[in-house]
Amino acid sequence: MTARACYRLLLQYDGRGFHGWQSQPGLRTVQGDLEGALGEIFGLAVRVHGAGRTDAGVHARGQVAHLLAPARHTSLTLRRALNATLAPDVWIADVRRASPRFHARFDASARTYRYILGTEDLARSPFHRPYCWPVGPGVDGLRLQDAAAAVLGTHDFSGFARRGPGSRRCSVRSAEWGPDPLGWRFEITADRFLRGMVRGLVGAFVEVARGALGRDWLAARLRMADGGHAPQAAPPEGLFLWQVEYPAAPLLDSGRGEDAASRG
Active-site residue 94, yes or no? Predict the structure, then answer.
């Protein structure tokens, strides 16, 4: 019987060419591209599980995924094979061997998303526009910061996300706006996120910062499980899955040391 190994991937992708992370019949997705590349490399079907199911058009700088496959590749050779097979808009930053019990999604303790809001003229450059929301001037930075503070803690975020099954409560550890060369940068870290939640929050924050809504509207919305009109969600172009955190646990290789050892 062929020995199997669990490989943990750290990957980045430009979301513009994808209909999200999750495989969908007839549509290009990140999971679909990865599984196609792994099928070529291993000669058999390999299932990939991601830490975050990003929507269509959303980018990733720190997506984590795992797969179980025959243990015929070192971490280094699998990373090289994947990057040689995948399209240029996906890049494998790191591969490590992990415990067979590791699960990229269910073992994650926190996730961080970043959103770029373009209030400077530079945001309309063709080199920046695909990776931000170029809203232009008229956004009050102090109002943005004050609005973000209202979502800290554990709340039901149904009022800022798409409908879906299961618990709607998320615990937000940090939510901060800071300056960015294009205008403003929002970072939010929580134990979990509902589908469309970050974009829904950013859309509301911008309305507060423009004076169309008050901070008390945000607090009231958080107390509503479902109801009332919500502002339009921010577009996907400015959103990045930035980082995924896991409890401290040793990996089975360093990403390079295993390969040096295999060469003697």
Answer: no
